[in-house]
Each structure stands twice: as C-alpha cells, then as structure tokens.
Specification:
single chain; 1015 residues; mainly alpha; six-stranded mixed β-sheet; four-stranded mixed β-sheet
C-alpha cells in the first residue's frame, strides 16, 4: 500500500504566518511570540524555548522525558516531570488569554501555536521545488528569494542554552544554504553568472566542503572564460575532501571536471529558456543543475505534452464531483493526475493522494484515506469527512478494486469534495466525467524522449527517435525507459535493436488480460536484460517491498547466495540511473521505490527464478525486527515509536498478507503479535482482528507464542464490543498459558477476563476473577498490576452491589497510584471512588473525589473520566431535587463522549422521565438499545429505566412484565449496582401502589455511570 499526501499543508500555510486570534512563533532569527502584530512578552528564555520546542512538533505531543532532555540536556535531573509542570504553568501564565494554546495529553504536552515564519518559508520552498520540476527558473529564483527573506538573522540565536536549539539551528541553517544554492543555480541558468560570481566565491570560502556550491562556482568561472580557475576550484575541493574527510568527490563533481576539460558545449548557457526539441537540452546538466546531491526520480522531471488533457482535467475538477482518467498501462494517467493535483494545490485547495495499486479491499482503502488525512482509520468517519471537506481526493490505479472504489465514493457525502480517479476502466457513476488518456501525440513523444535522453538529440536523429517511440506505442513509460538506454547506446543503435526486439518478443499487441503492461513488457524485458546479474537479482528481490524502502531494509532483505550486502547500494544506484527505481524523500529519509509497472514485472521475474519464497521470508523477518526495535525502548508508550512502525505500514501489511498459509506463517504470527500495541494505540482493532484470525493457526508456533496471540486477539475483540468471542479467546489463551511459566501473561489474561465479564454483565464471575488476580499480583509484588486489579475489582464489586467493598478497592488503587505518581491512574481511580460514594449516598464526599479527579483528567484530556465525573455531579443534583441542573450535567457528559453510547445516555433518560419529558426519554433509550448488546452492562442498567418509562406512560402491564424479566436477569448475572436496583424497587412500589390505589412517592433517583469499561 502506497500512501502519499500531496501538498496537504498548502491550504494551511497560506492562512498561517501572520494571522490573529492564535499564537504565532517566529524562529528565523531572535525568537518572537506574537498574537497578530502584538508581542506577547514571553520574556524568560526557558519558557520561550519550551514553546518553540512544542511548536516545532507541529501539534504532535512531545513526551515528558524527551521534552526535559531537549530543554535541559540528558544529565540526571531532580524531578524533571515536576520541573516541566512548573515551567508549563509559567508559560501558560505568560501567554495570558492564550494559555490554553499549551495542552496536556497522555502522550505529552503539545501546542496549537504555529511557527509562522518557518511555515511561510516552507511554503515558498515548496514553490521552489515545483518550479524546479517544471524547469521554470525565474519562478525558482523568485520563490527562493521569498523563502530566504523570512530570515531575520541566525536561527534561534537567543535560545542556544537549550540543547535542542543547537540541532534545530544547524538543520535550518543547512536548509537555508540549500535554498540559497537553488537561487544561485536558477540565477546562473538565467544567464546572470557574473552577478553571483563574488557571492559564490564568498560562500565557497565559508563552506569549503560543500560540493554543489563548488560546482556552481566552477561552472560560473568556466562560463566567464576562466577554465583554469574553474578546474582549480574543483581541485581545491578534491583536496579538502581528501584531507578533512578522507573521501573522494561525488561522481557528479568528477563528471563536471571532465566536461570542463573537454570544453563540453552543453556547459554553455542555453540559447533560450525554452529550446527546441532537438537542440540543447533545457537547463544545466544534472551535475550542476540541482541544489543538492538528490537523485531525481522520473516523476520529478518536467511535465511534457498533454496540454489539452490537462486543461480538460483542471476544468472538470472545478465543476464535477467525480472525474476519471481512463487509459492503458503506462499511458501516463498518474503523471497527469499529479500535475493536475499540483495546480489545484498551488491554487490553495487541499489535495489528498492515495495510491491503490497494492490495496485489495474496501477496508484497507478506507484506512489509506484515513491515514492520508491523519485521522484514526476506524471509528472516526467525522474526522475523515472534515479533513476532506472542500478537498481534492486523488485515487490512483483503481482498476483492480473498482467495485470497492465505487462503493466508497458513493458513501462519501462530503461538502465540496471532488474525487479524481485513475483507472483502466470507467466507474459508471452518475455524473462521472471520463477523460480518456491514449498515447502521446508524436510531437510530445519526441519532446519527452529528448528531455529524458542522456545526450542531446540532433535533427539527423529525428527519424530514429520516432522509430523508438513507435516501438513502444508512444506510451510515456516506454519512451522514458527507452530514452534511459541512451546512456549505453547511440540513438541509431537503439532504433535498430529495440525495433527488432519488439517484433521478436511481441509479434504484435498482446490482448490477454493477464499482462498489465501490454507492449511495455518489451521495453521492460530489454531493460532487464541489459542489467548485470547482480542488478537483476536486486531488482527482483526489492519487488517484495510495498510503499518504498530505505537502503538498510534492502541490505537486510536482498543478500542471499553470492549476492552480498555490500553489493546492494551500488546496484540500487544503477537501477535509479536507468530509471527502473526512483528515489523519494520523506521525513528526512531517502527512500527507494519502484513504479508499479516495474514492480509487477520484477515480481513476475522473482517467481520465474524461484526466489519468491526466500525473499518473502527475509521481508517478513525484516518487518518483525523493525517493529520489535521500535518498541524496545519504551514499549510503544510514546507517539514516536508508534509513528516509526506506521511509517512502514505498507511493508508490514504486505508481509502479513503474504505470510498467510505460507511455510513462514509463524513469522507472520510473530509480526502480528508484535503489532498488538501499535494497533491498539491507533485503535486499529478491526485490522488487528483480521490478521490474527488469518494467522492464529500458523504451523510451528510455540505454545508461548500461541498464548500471547490469543490474548492479543481477545483484547482487540473486546475493544470492538465482541465480548463473547473475546471471552472464548481468553479461555483459549488461559489454557495455553497454563503450560508455560509466564506470570505476567497469566495476570494479564485474568485481568482481561474480568473486564470482559464486567462488560458482558457477568458480575459474579468478574468479582471472583479480579479479586483472585489482585491477590496473585500482590504475591509477585507487581505494583502496576496490583493497582490495575484493585481498580477493576472495585468496578466489579460496585456493579455487583458491593459498594463498600468497591470503595475499599478503589482506595487501594488510589494509594498505589499516588505512590507511583500515576496521574492517569489517579484520574480514573478518584472518579471510580466518587461513583462508589454515590452508590452509598455520600454525595458531598463524592463531589470532592470527582473534583480532584478532574484536576488530573483535564491535564490529560481524559474525556471519558470527565464525563463520568459530570454524572457524579448529576447524581448529587438529583438527590437535592435539582433536576434541571442534573440534566445539564448529563448533557455535558454526553458532549465529552460525542456519539458514543454510555451511561450518560441512560442516566439522562432517567432524569428526563422524572422531569416528565417522556418522548425525549424514549428517544434516548431507543438510541441506547440500537447500539448495546442484550445482557451487557449498559443493557442491564437501562432496563429499570425502561420500566420506569412504561409506568410514567401509563402502561403498567408492560412495566410489570419488564420488572419480572429484569429481576431474573439481575439474579442470573449478579448485577446489583445500587442506583439501578433503587430504580427497579421504585417501579415495583409504584406498581404495587397502583394495584392497591395507595399513592406512593417515587424513590429519589440515584444516578451513576460506567465509562465504557475503561479505567
């Protein structure tokens, strides 16, 4: 699965930078903190440093330990967490009315403050890169000057006492130098070499080891007639690199030196910015043209031809909801879609690009869209819809999942959303605009070949170029692959050989549906056979990667037999050089990837050579090592370790799906178990269940592996509300765990069984299981699990009608949490203590506990606990007869939980009945019953409220039937939660009074809650 976000921040960046009603931080110089144009007066350096560090995380929480180290260094600190709290408190005070811009989450502190000048500079830099790809050098220079104009001096110059500032300042200074090189590169191309000569000389003196600067300086000197000075510049670079770093110059530098010696005519300035097809190639040669040592992928080159189609696509995107680009393999659908999307993004509209080639089901497509917009893939359609509002969604390569794509588009009811699809078939949706993409017209095909060829094409070679283009049906991919071969052959040799090769291999156009690439197969066959054996093997084996890979991954997976680790990097460079692989940059990493057509071809060759199984086994082993290494340091307790895993999710998914039923299925099972915590952290429970179910019977797995797998599988089932299935899975896990010596796993299984029994309404069983678990944890001195069991035991006891025992259990849990400084545990434990006090009608004490719980829950943004505390307050108001205030607290609790059904709904319905709002109460209860399972805890709590509603509406017969059934259910399940027992008894008394015509005052309602079985 390959997922890209194209210009996803452009719409934000255009609005940030100098806005109002938010905190703007400026770091490209002395740090400024502003609200619009007003200086906010954050004067203390450490407070400014904390705000800058959080703002640099761009909304992502920064773990406490990381933040402390970044601010004070990694030396041992006395009570660093407490110091952070004091510092953040001061920062909030300094921000005044904007103090809420710094918030707390379980993963750490975060801020909504934006780094205005950096975002503006990045937006300009994006335009630099887009103009470079399009060959628009005047635009490159203009955008680079705009980006550089945001610097007011040395970056973070007044925060150098903070360790992170040194690293960040160096990074941004290096980026600034890259922008400066881009500007100078464009200026040189535009024929203004003389005006930058002095500046280049100064920069080379300041950065003697910077090769792109030295190459630019040498080229400038050469163009002004100083060949000797140009060569001397490169000679001094070579000497400095050898003496200081012990390395030779890059091949680009060596090639430029050779071309200067030969007086290569292509080194002279182009006659015009737009040269003709068969004249001097546009722009400077690659060795001096770019501002860094980046290896440029094909997709990064200028867009050629398709003007009519591009205009049609852009025009349709502004008018229609669904636009489909239809064409055969290699026709350039993706490139055209990207070009159209780039134009849309530059106009300020949000663009989301999702590659579908490696996806095969609607659920994984939905996940891909969710990940692309930074939303949780399961359970948060509102977040996805909000991110897609007014956006352009590009779904690329949809032909193999056409039905799923149609279904998803039909269910996406998002205002202002436009969907651009590339496919080999039309979707057939009402109102769909279909734009068919065929071969390039001949002029564009010749231009494309001329731009991609290694050497300039002269007029005498036009007919040979046309023959080569015709041999690959004038399809863009075939033309680009053929043009890449000009590094090995002259154009005449290429024309003679490729034409014969086409006739030999094809014998005319293929019509079978099994070959995706049709006549492109010939170009791929020939390109493959021109590789040396090592390059062929590397190409075949890297095809097991999905979504790209880093060099280290290839060095793990590829070596086998005579192919050694040291061969991989050289072979990859050769594949990139021939256009068979591309280089991408993401989050500061250089990643390699194959075009899907090339990857499919390589996979077919992998199967032919019989290397598929060994390569797949090494791939799943690499994924397993990656996941285990990511969680080794913190057990996946931080956002960073979880993000590290999901950065390689396409590869993990590929490995899991190819392990099913394979001889290496045990490795797949180990990988699924290792992914347990990352899946749980992202709430990918459905995805986890799918993989566990596919791999849980893997041959060769040990008893311990199976026990852990069944436990992980059970947890994800319970998170999906599939409690009966979870209980069966836990029983299987317990049976397996009995045969191994793993006390921690045995305790975890017991704890989860108790929690599942609570959710299923099996309160008697839950109490017994959890009390025994707490005893066992105490024997092993496992303090963390002691606290967990004490709290879970208290919950079970409370729901079973043992409120006094529950209060004691919650007291033990709170004590342990205080000793360990567990703020999350205190938020939950104090809230549970308040619930137990409500059940005992000790309302004033309950309110004190709820207020203390709030102090922790608000810092952690623990909304479920906050909702529970609101219901404690509602109970107190009901007891005081203030039903209007009680309703207000219930609705506040609902707002914390959004659309999630909870006890807030049940308690609200009961308050509404007491207020005589019976229709509203019935509506709330109906909603509850549509989403909770019969016999579950919520269902048991709702039944006496339904009986009360029946009495209130005058249906005594229905109420009596309900009371009888509920009494039986309570006896069977052990349910005895006092507020709902009281409500049931109230209904019984009202029914008895009706039979004897003796008026009976209703029992004062008592309200409590359960927060979705968490905490």
């Amino acid at each position: 699965m390959v997922i890209h976000k194209v210009a996803s921040d452009l719409d934000l960046r255009s609005e940030r930078g100098l806005g109002h009603d938010r905190v703007d931080v400026h770091i490209l110089g002395p740090v400024l903190v502003r609200d619009g144009n007003r200086d906010m007066g954050v004067d203390r350096p450490l407070e400014r440093a904390a705000l800058v560090r959080l703002a640099l995380a761009r909304g992502v929480p920064v773990p406490d330990q990381r933040l402390a180290e970044d601010l004070w260094g990694d030396a041992d600190l006395h009570r660093p967490i407490q110091r952070l709290r004091v510092l953040i408190s001061r920062l909030r005070a300094a921000l005044g009315a904007h103090g809420d811009a710094v918030t707390r989450s379980p993963a750490g502190y975060r801020t909504t403050a934006t780094i205005a000048d950096l975002l503006a500079a990045e937006a300009a830099a994006e335009r630099v890169h887009a103009a470079q790809r399009a060959g628009q050098y005047a635009a490159v220079r203009s955008a680079a000057e705009e980006a550089l104009g945001w610097w007011r001096g040395p970056t973070l110059v007044d925060l150098m006492s903070a360790p992170f500032a040194h690293v960040e300042s160096a990074r941004l200074d290096e980026w600034r130098l890259g922008l400066l090189v881009a500007k100078l590169d464009a200026t040189l191309y535009l024929g203004s070499g003389a005006e930058i000569s002095t500046e280049l000389t100064t920069l080379v003196r300041e950065h003697p080891l910077h090769e792109p600067l030295a190459r630019l300086s040498a080229l400038t000197l050469y163009r002004t007639g100083s060949q000797a000075d140009a060569l001397d510049r490169l000679h001094r670079l070579r000497k400095a690199l050898a003496e200081e770093l012990g390395v030779d110059p890059t091949p680009e530098t060596a090639e430029l030196e050779l071309r200067i010696l030969r007086h290569d005519p292509a080194l002279q300035p182009p006659r015009s910015v737009q040269s003709d097809v068969f004249g001097t190639p546009s722009g400077l040669p690659d060795v001096v043209r770019t501002a860094s040592d980046t290896v440029r992928s094909v997709a990064a080159d200028g867009f050629v031809g398709r003007e009519r189609e591009l205009a049609a696509v852009v025009g349709s995107l502004s008018q229609r909801a669904v636009v489909t680009l239809v064409g055969g393999p290699g026709s350039g659908k993706t490139r055209l879609a990207l070009e159209a999307a780039r134009g849309v993004a530059e106009a300020g509209r949000s663009v989301v690009f999702v590659e579908l080639a490696s996806l095969h089901r609607s659920d994984t497509i939905n996940q891909a869209i969710a990940v692309a917009v930074d939303a949780t893939p399961e359970g948060c359609p509102d977040a996805v819809n909000a991110a897609l509002t007014g956006a352009l969604l590009v779904l690329d390569n949809a032909e193999h999942v056409l039905g799923e794509v149609i279904s998803i588009i039909e269910t996406l009811r998002v205002p202002g959303l436009t969907v651009l699809v590339t496919s080999q078939r039309v979707l057939g949706l009402p109102g769909e605009v279909v734009i068919r993409i065929g071969p390039l017209d001949h002029a564009a095909g010749l231009t494309l070949f001329g731009e991609r060829a290694i050497c300039p094409v002269i007029t005498a070679e036009e007919s040979d170029v046309a023959a080569v283009c015709a041999a690959v049906d004038w399809l863009p991919l075939g033309i680009e692959l053929a043009a890449g071969l000009t590094k090995t052959f002259t154009i005449a040799q290429l024309a003679q050989r490729i034409d014969g090769r086409i006739r030999l291999l094809m014998g005319g156009r293929r019509t079978g549906g099994s070959d995706r690439h049709s006549s492109l197969r010939a170009a791929l066959d020939w390109s493959y056979e021109l590789l040396d054996p090592v390059e062929q093997a590397v190409l075949r084996r890297i095809s097991v990667f999905a979504g790209g890979f880093v060099l280290e991954a290839a060095e793990w997976v590829v070596p086998s037999g005579r192919l050694e680790k040291t061969d991989v990097a050289t072979a990859l460079a050769g594949l990139v050089d021939r256009g068979l692989a591309t280089v991408l940059f993401s989050a500061g990493q250089r990643r390699f990837a194959l075009l899907e057509t090339v990857r499919d071809y390589a996979l077919s060759m992998l199967a032919v050579t019989g290397e598929g199984a060994p390569a797949r086994q090494r791939h799943v082993a690499w994924c397993l090592d990656l996941v285990r290494a990511a969680g080794e340091s913190d057990g996946f307790e931080t956002a960073e370790s979880i993000a590290a895993v999901f950065a390689e999710w396409p590869n993990v998914l590929e490995a899991l799906e190819h392990a099913v039923g394979a001889p290496w299925a045990r490795r797949g099972l180990q990988l699924a178990t290792a992914m347990h915590k990352p899946w749980a952290a992202r709430a990918w429970h459905q995805e986890a269940v799918r993989h566990f179910e596919a791999l849980i019977d893997a041959a060769g797995a040990t008893v311990a592996e199976r026990a852990h797998t069944w436990y992980s599988y059970a947890l994800h089932l319970s998170m999906l509300g599939r409690y009966d299935e979870s209980a069966r899975a836990l029983a299987a896990a317990a049976e397996l765990a009995d045969g191994i010596s793993d006390a921690a796993l045995a305790l975890d299984i017991r704890y989860r069984r108790g929690k599942v029994d609570i959710a299923r309404g099996q309160l008697g069983a839950a109490v017994a299981t959890l009390e025994a678990g707490e005893t066992q944890a105490r024997r092993t001195a496992d303090v963390v699990r002691m606290a967990s069991f004490a709290e879970a035991s208290g919950t079970a006891q409370l729901f079973a009608g043992l409120a006094e025992y529950g209060l004691e259990s919650f007291h033990r849990a709170v004590q342990l949490d205080r000793e360990r400084g567990d703020e999350h545990g205190l938020a939950c434990g104090l809230s549970n203590r308040a619930r137990a006090l409500v059940a005992l009608a000790r309302y004033s004490e309950a309110l004190v506990a709820a207020d203390e719980s709030d102090t922790y829950a608000k810092q952690l943004d623990e909304r479920k606990v906050l909702a529970r505390n609101e219901l404690v307050r509602a109970a107190a108001e009901v007891a005081a007869g203030r039903l209007e205030l009680a309703e207000k607290h219930c609705r506040t609790a609902q707002s914390y939980l959004a659309h999630e059904i909870s006890m807030a709904d049940i308690d609200l319905a009961d308050v509404l009945i007491h207020r005589g709002e019976l229709t509203a109460a019935k509506s709330v209860l109906d909603s509850v019953y549509t989403q909770v399972a019969p016999g579950s805890l919520h269902w048991l709590a709702a039944r006496p409220v339904s009986a009360a509603l029946a009495v209130a509406t005058g249906d005594a017969e229905a109420a009596a039937v309900l009371v009888g059934r509920v009494t039986g259910h309570y006896a069977k399940s052990g349910f005895g939660w006092q507020p709902y027992i009281d409500r049931l008894q109230d209904v019984q008394q009202q029914l008895a009074a009706r039979r004897t015509s003796i008026p009976v005052a209703p029992v004062v309602p008592r309200v409590s809650t359960l927060c979705k079985h968490q905490c």
